[in-house]
């Protein structure tokens, strides 16, 4: 199969999937409005927020997710008793300073 054709097919499928999700989301929000679960003025805002997230247009959400992921990673490393790279670098620096001081003290004797 031609690479250009494959790429075109993937793009079309992605667009089709996004369109289906948007249509389904609009349908569901209208159902929620009709059943009283969602304020009619909030429905279009909800749809737009979800679509922005799907398109990757929500840097604040991405940043929040990234911070949460970092916290989870840090907690996992802590629970496993593993050090982060920054901690290892700090320890290497301390070791280098101590070795330098030890050499200076040995040279003074």
Helix content: over 70%
* Mean model confidence by pLDDT: 81
Quaternary arrangement of the chains shown?
single chain
How would the global form be characterised? elongated
Give a structural overview.
- This protein has helices at 3-35, 43-55, 59-80, 85-108.
- It has 109 residues and is mostly helical.
- It has one domain.
SSE topology:
Layout: H1 3-35, H2 43-55, H3 59-80, H4 85-108
Helix pairs in contact: 1-2
Name a few traits of the molecule.
109 residues, single chain, mainly alpha
Describe, in short, the structure shown.
With 109 residues, the chain is mainly alpha-helical. It has four helices and no strands.
């Amino acid at each position: 199969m031609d690479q250009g054709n494959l790429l075109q097919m993937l793009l079309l499928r992605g667009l089709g999937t996004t369109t289906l999700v948007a249509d389904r989301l609009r349908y569901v929000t209208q159902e929620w409005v009709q059943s009283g679960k969602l304020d009619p003025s909030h429905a279009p805002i909800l749809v737009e927020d979800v679509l922005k997230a799907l398109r990757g247009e929500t840097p604040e959400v991405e940043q929040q997710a990234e911070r949460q992921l970092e916290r989870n990673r840090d907690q996992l490393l802590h629970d496993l008793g593993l050090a982060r790279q920054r901690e290892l670098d700090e320890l290497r620096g301390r070791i280098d300073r101590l070795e330098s001081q030890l050499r200076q003290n040995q040279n003074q004797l």
